[in-house]
């Protein structure tokens, strides 16, 4: 016997599958360090945020590890791909898994998905694990889905963080 609730019917919504595919595509590109292609997944004016405070919502006024608009995101990509920064020369290899997708909001123009991310990385003969709650706001009002906002809430965000050499 099947019980249908509002929680289980989200996957039947035709807007959800393209948003999920975009999030999975993003993870694939990041693990392969295809940062220029990753940048093309973003909507103009899109924000990439890694807040320090776990419950922060006012990212513009809060202290963040990352608060990147288009310009800053492209500068970060340049540092990671130029070979001139320590983050580029000691870049970690990563494999990330995203799961536990929950639709937070949906309308005709956008979908907001929350998920869990577990990232396993390897750098300088050391393997490490990072976990985060991730929220993607995906724009659906153009010819293809685009990331409007990505917020990565690391579970250890209030601890000291070493330079990563990769994007979350």
UniProtKB/TrEMBL annotation:
SUPFAM superfamilies: NTF2-like. GO terms for molecular function: dioxygenase activity. InterPro entries: NTF2-like_dom_sf (IPR032710), Rng_hydr_dOase-bsu (IPR000391). The keyword Endoplasmic reticulum does not apply. Pfam families: Ring_hydroxyl_B. The keyword Oxidoreductase applies. Keywords: Dioxygenase, Oxidoreductase. PANTHER family: 3-PHENYLPROPIONATE_CINNAMIC ACID DIOXYGENASE SUBUNIT BETA (PTHR41534:SF2), BLR3401 PROTEIN (PTHR41534). Belongs to the bacterial ring-hydroxylating dioxygenase beta subunit family. This is Aromatic-ring-hydroxylating dioxygenase subunit beta. It comes from Streptomyces vulcanius.
